[in-house]
Design brief:
The chain has 276 residues and is of the alpha+beta class. The chain has 2 domains: 114 residues, D-amino Acid Aminotransferase, Chain A, domain 1, CATH 3.30.470.10; 150 residues, D-amino Acid Aminotransferase, Chain A, domain 2 (Alpha-Beta Barrel), CATH 3.20.10.10. Helix content is 26%, strand content 30%. It has 6 helices and 15 strands. Strands 7, 8, 9, 10, 11, 12, 13, 14 and 15 form a 9-stranded mixed β-sheet that branches. A 6-stranded antiparallel β-sheet has the order 2-1-6-5-3-4. Helix 4 links the parallel strand 7 and strand 8. The longest helix is centred in the C-terminal third of the chain and has 16 residues. The structure holds pyridoxal-5'-phosphate (PLP). Pyridoxal-5'-phosphate (PLP) binds next to helix 5 and strand 13.
Length: 276
């Protein structure tokens, strides 16, 4: 595997991050996961904007967008990847032990890519026994502080499921460990609003645009998921993935008609525009 780190393309074995990097020691950093279609990173502009927004919220510098794009293209070429996931990570850089950043320390920037296997047609989910804090300093930001997601995903996998869904502190539906959630209630498509504490997923935003005002962004109690007519996950790697079971109980349809329609509309979007 060839990776890009702070301006250099290197074999993975030779790439080095300082043991004092603030990303490593305290999870101080942000990231993006993109996927390629036909060898081209999809929705580059939106991912770059979100990376900048997450970094700005943490007070981190991000390298120039053109430099990052050249890095992503170089990594894809060097690894001869077609369908791939690309990950860009930007951390606070080397710092003394402790929570303060080193004054003037530049960010550490890493770009890696790996083959992407086709996603499963449906996912089973469980409700996580932990909440997302919609009032927290990191709410809605794509930071590398993902240990809570790692723990919740392991909780789901230990129960034979592929995703865990978080409620927020108000008991409302928030998001999954690596995806947003949509559900159909009494025939109406609904997804939690950003104020629920969810990440504003790029896929979520594109689906909302494809719905053209017919999807409601509103709070729903976490219990609504198990009573939905249908529900699905959205993310860069899952695209539109119908939810088959919630805590072991089957939803009426997976895929339901709304997921089927939106998955087709999303595929058409990808076919006509790689940077919508
Ligand atoms: C916590 C979380 N929510 C939602 C998403 C979906 O975002 P996107 O559609 O931009 O991939 C992700 C993606 O990784 C995520 O990590």
């Amino acid at each position: 595997m060839i990776v890009w780190i702070d301006g250099e393309l290197l074999p993975l074995e030779r790439a080095r991050v300082s043991p004092l990097d603030h990303g490593l020691t305290v999870g101080d950093g942000v990231f993006e996961t993109l996927r390629t279609y036909r060898g081209v990173p999809f929705a580059w502009r939106r991912h770059l904007e979100r990376l900048r927004a997450s970094a700005a919220a943490l007070g981190l510098d991000v390298p120039d967008g053109d430099e990052l794009r050249l890095a992503a293209d170089a990594v894809l070429r060097a690894n001869r990847l077609g369908d791939a996931r690309v990950r860009i990570t930007v951390t606070g850089g080397p710092a003394p032990p402790g929570s303060s950043r080193a004054p003037g320390a530049g960010p550490t920037t890493i770009v890696v890519a790996a083959p992407l296997a086709p996603g499963a047609p449906t996912a089973d989910v469980v409700i996580a026994p932990w909440t997302r804090n919609e009032h927290g300093a990191l709410a809605g930001l794509k930071t590398i502080s993902y240990a809570a997601n790692v723990r919740a995903l392991a909780y789901a996998q230990a129960r034979g499921a592929q995703e865990a869904i978080f409620a927020n502190t108000a008991g409302n539906l928030c998001e999954a460990t690596g995806s947003n959630v949509f559900l159909v209630l009494d025939g109406v498509l609904v997804t939690p609003p950003p104020s629920a504490g969810c990440l504003q997923g790029v896929t979520r935003a594109l689906l909302l645009e494809l719905c053209d005002g017919t999807c409601e962004e509103r709070d729903v109690p976490i219990g609504a998921l198990a009573t939905a007519d249908e529900a699905f996950l959205s993310s860069t790697t899952r695209e539109v993935q119908p939810i088959a079971h919630v805590d072991g109980v089957a939803l009426p349809a997976a895929p339901g008609p709304v997921a089927t329609r939106l998955a087709a509309a999303f595929a058409q979007l990808v076919a006509r525009d790689l940077d919508p």
